[in-house]
Write a structure and sequence with these properties.
This protein is α+β, with helices and mostly antiparallel strands and 83 residues long. It has one domain. It is 27% helix and 33% strand. The protein has a three-stranded mixed β-sheet, with no helix packed on it. The two termini are 41 Å apart.
């Protein structure tokens, strides 16, 4: 059977899903003969984790934390921490 692969990108720090892509893959029987995709696709969900620097929410939180540290403002320790 042919596949529809749905890839979701998730922040490894906060868990926010910030992007999703779809791609189609033909099976060997359809690809070899040059025929179109099967009518009913098997759906495969894939989750890929991205570093927190790719997440706008985590970047904003880090900039606020760094500003507070630089200015001597009391600010709670981030949980989970930035690695």
């Amino acid at each position: 059977m042919c596949f529809l692969i749905v890839t979701t990108y998730v922040c490894d720090r906060c868990g926010k899903a910030f992007r999703s892509t779809q791609s189609h893959r033909k099976c060997a029987s359809q690809r070899g003969t040059g025929r179109p995709y099967h009518a009913h696709l098997d759906i495969e969900n894939v989750t890929k984790y991205k570093h927190w620097v790719d997440c706008k929410d985590c970047e904003y939180e880090y900039s606020m934390y760094a500003h507070a540290q630089a200015e001597g403002i009391a600010w709670p320790t981030p949980n989970p921490p930035f690695h």
